[in-house]
Amino acid sequence: MQKIIDFLEKEKIEHPSETAIRHYTTIKIGGHAGLVAIIRKNSELQRLIPRLLDGGYPYILLGGGSNVIFAGDSSGLVLLIDKTPDIRIHNKELIKVSGGVTNHNLLHWCSRNNIGGFEFLAGIPGTIGGAAAVNAGAFQRSIADVLEKGAIINGKGETEIVGSDYFQFQYRESRFKTGGECILEVYLTYVFKENDEIKRTVADNIRYRKLNHPNYHLQTAGCYFKNPVIDGRKVAAGKLIEECGLKGFRENRMMVSNQHANFLINEGGATCEDAKKFERHIYEQVLQQQGTPLEREVIYISSEGKKY
User: Fold this and answer.
1) Domain ranges of the chain
2) Which residues contact 72 (CB under 8 A, 6 or more apart)?
3) DSSP state for residue 216 in the 8-state scheme
4) pLDDT the model gives residue 136
5) Domain topology for 2-81
6) Catalytic machinery residues
7) What is the CATH architecture assignment of 87-198?
8) Which residue numbers in the chain have pLDDT < 70?
9) Are 307 and 178 in contact, with CB atoms under 8 Å apart?
């Protein structure tokens, strides 16, 4: 790893060591990262990742830190993608957005530039790269509906442009969710809309979230389970959990939200093992009472950087 540290110093890439990794996640769970590199330009990733791959150094990409839980200490390099905005109109149909742009900043830029089609992202935390990796969505739309292509660093460390089919989108899934490839930029289809219309839709969506989701200041990773399909119809996982009488249930420093039962809250000091045991209890209760096996949406990250 010393070679990588030397490279980071040479490139003047900020790299704090022995950092509490929980500070970089929305649920605030995790141990210490041996080394963190704060990435502010895609060119830094393009120079760094091939060296990591050549040397066999484990690493993990981290954007806004939602939808993930670190199992403990991280022995690999954590690449923290800085949230500096880099958005531009590519042509009459597409905008090009850097993976580190937050969904919040994207929507602000869109409203200023009369660019519509992404209002469904309102209130979803994290970055656009992370949203593409998990095919994030709401209000009957998802990233898969608007992503035309992307610039990525593949498993060989090479930069290439790939079409939407390469992402292998499924419900809250893509090949990037647990894979090791890196999303540098995404090209998204847009429509022209009046500024006021965009602002009104964004405000409505955020208002809905505030009424129906827990306060964003609470320590949660977002929706913990995918909505299952029962008899050909998608059913809200939160509804199934609520029907099992689990709203407000507490155990081992974890809690089921009283507002939305698919949000599991770290009440302070919870570990990954606490979260796993809590998840297992909810899974078993829903299976026993409803006959439905839930599938986890949140990603666990091992100390070696493996996502599962």
Assistant:
1) 2-81, 87-198, 215-301
2) 30, 31, 271, 272, 303
3) T
4) 96
5) 3.30.43
6) 172, 223, 297
7) 2-Layer Sandwich (3.30)
8) none
9) yes
Tokens of 79: 């690449």
Cβ atoms of 263 and 220 within 8 Å: the answer is yes
pTM of the model: 0.92
In the block, residue with structure tokens 């490279």? 7
Looking at the domain 215-301, which fold is it?
3.90.78
Structure-block tokens of residue 119: 């209002």
> What is the sign of the dihedral through the CA atoms of 134, 181, 126 and 22?
positive
Q: Which are the contacts of 257, defined by CB distance < 8 A and separation ≥ 6?
A: 213, 214, 218, 220, 247, 263, 264, 265
Contacts of 54 (CB under 8 A, 6+ apart): 157
* CA 4 – CA 17 distance, rounded (Å): 13
Q: Is 289 exposed, middle or buried (0-12, 13-18, 19+ CB in 10 A)?
A: middle
